[in-house]
Amino acid sequence: MTCARRIFIKINVIKIGRTVGACRRFFHAELVRHESSGLPIVHHNQYVCELPVNHRFPMAKFPRVLHFLLKDQVITDKQVWAPKIPSKELLSCVHTEEYLQNFINGNVEEKDQRRTGFPWSQGLVRRCRYETGGTVLAAEVALQRGLACSTAGGTHHAFPSYGSGFCLLNDLAVAAKYVLNNSSKRKVLIVDLDVHQGDGTAFIFKEDPSVFTFSVHCAKNFPLRKQQSDLDVSVQDGLEDKEYLSTVEAHLPHLLQTFRPDLVLYDAGVDPHQEDELGRLRLTDQGLYQRDLYVMKTVVSRGIPVAAVIGGGYSRDIDKLALRHSIVQRAATQVWRECGM
Amino acid sequence: MEDSEFEDVLDDWFIESLKTYKDLHVYQLEHPTKVIEWTSEKTVCVAGYTSSKNEILELRLPLKLLADKNKGLCAERDFKVTYGGFTEGAVCCLTHVPGTRCLVTNDGLSSDLQLWELGGDDSDVIRRTGLVQGRSLSDGGSKIAAQLSPSPQVLHGGLISDVLLTELSSGLTVYKLETQSSDRLSSLQFESEAVFLAGCTNGSVYVADTRTSAAPQLLPPPESSHESVQWWADVCAGPHLSCSRLIRLSSVGVAVVSDLRNAGTSVSRAQLDVNAQRSNPDIRVCWSPTLHDYVSVSGFGGVVEIYNVSSWSTDSQVVAESLFQHRGHAVSSNVDVSVVVTAHTWHPERPRTLMSAASDGSVHVWDWVEPHQSA
């Protein structure tokens, strides 16, 4: 009797194990949250690395974004997924072998390091890889659940063979390419509303009809040497909430209608904000919230999944900046609720 | 350089500047200036130097730079023109009479000075209010210095033999420097209310006390192995008695620091790594008004360099390394003719804030990061 029962149970366990294993294969994750019905948030504590004292890049913002979302009870920790570190193979769908080899091993020339704005370190390599992994996971989860947000991402100045402007790996490009190569999805739309043009992404997908790159950016901001996205909207200094939103509204619905993407990757950079140190626009907190709400609602209500990343933002006040970055997750939470997801 | 190549250079410079500056603001004037003169901690005056009509402007610094806290709240990142006027000729020297709204200019040709008032009667105009006659009949213009007490006074002259101290309200001559030589001046500066220094292009410096009729003290030119060099000078006259040093810089980059308390004996020397081929009348050397031992140099090219003289020895063979180089003017100029920095100055109170202007009309205000602290 006992033997029979044991065998019965064993069979059941194997069956369940197989199912769980199958789910795990679909996600590049260290931690999955199938049981949570809330908005999926992607975060990893390895999104940060040590930087020299007084370095301009606000590295500390990533954990602070999560901190404020939890503290303000916008989300619970049960909603937080953690990405796996992407393999060199996964990254090579966008980046050259030579660049990846040198980057991972620290064989980076002084002048190339300078253009990135970062001094090379092992920690830097690790955090860039995790950040890219986060965007890939957000895309995977969005495909399954309809909407997902990372607490990092938006490294759109990275080109296949070099980094630039605080970007070393192009997370949006890797996520787009990964989805196209590993699912039945055929088209990805990248909506980049960071105040700096997504030049790396534009370059990577220039000849690729399955990815549409759309960038709204300030003409006078870095990079001065612009690439050609599929749709570039270059705005003047000092643009405020109302006009900025009108600009996005003038293009997004039409793009969704004509391009008909299977997935939207959304770079919700907060550097169009009036308090941003490097951006030259004049958006307010409300303006950013309305923008993010509009973009995600417009996409989701057409039944298209969207994965959002925080994009760029520069301020010496890390907490203020992190709160600003958390706007996109707050807007996503509202969309999640309103659309009954 | 091709446009896209130049844009690349500017992009590289932008990323680098994030690390090397705490702040950097760039402005473009319609016409270049050779003068930058503080009229308050937030405002400066600049003026053109073409041979005919020129604009004279007072600019307010970008609010974003001045706000130490809540930097983000200041949307204004540009300079703002607060007052403006027109001159009949070039402006080669411009001095603000401290504590007043009065400016004094010279056109670099005659020895006469023009007097101006900033605003007044609720207008935003800088208008001519008078003239101060110089003593010299020779060409070459006058150098100017001004002080508020004992009464608003202007020190001026083109040659050492022409130096006059004129009281502004009465127009009367308060002091006349009597000397036999007729060396051309390269600088004129008050060391205190009663004592001033007159630096000559041949390297000698006269120290005069306006309370006595005694002849001024003469500090001979520094030893130099080069013939026919020109010299510029700056005196560090801080409120502390210990800070009474003179620096002299030659057109081939020899820099000599002397102690005024000790009969001007040479304290240290250095050879600066400069492009000495260029003979430029706009060479400037300035002590920092707040940081002890810091000196800035410009005019040899498109760069402003900052040095810490405490590392200099008495061995003039040593080539001094600059602590910091502001290369903004050189980098952002895409013209065939090399750009030259025409003027620069330290902020009177903010320790590491400087302002510089170049021959292409660019004006930069920058807050630099001490190298050992940067990323």
UniProtKB/TrEMBL annotation, chain A:
Pfam families on file: Hist_deacetyl
Residue ranges of every copy of the Histone deacetylase domain listed in the record: 55-318
Transmembrane helix among keywords: no
GO MF term set: histone deacetylase activity; hydrolase activity
GO BP: any one term: epigenetic regulation of gene expression
Keyword Hydrolase annotated: yes
Protein name: Histone deacetylase domain-containing protein
Chain's gene name: hdac12
Automatic annotation (TrEMBL), chain B:
PROSITE patterns in UniProt: WD_REPEATS_2
UniProt WD repeat ranges: 341-367
Residues passing through the membrane, by range: none
Keyword Zinc listed: no
GO cellular component, as recorded: cytosol; spindle pole
InterPro entries: WD40/YVTN_repeat-like_dom_sf, WD40_repeat_dom_sf, WD40_rpt, Wdr73
Keyword Ribosomal protein among record annotations: no
GO biological process: cytoplasmic microtubule organization
Alphabetical keyword list: WD repeat
SUPFAM superfamilies in UniProt: WD40 repeat-like
Protein name: WD repeat-containing protein 73
Organism: Gouania willdenowi (Blunt-snouted clingfish)
Lineage: Eukaryota, Metazoa, Chordata, Craniata, Vertebrata
Gene: wdr73
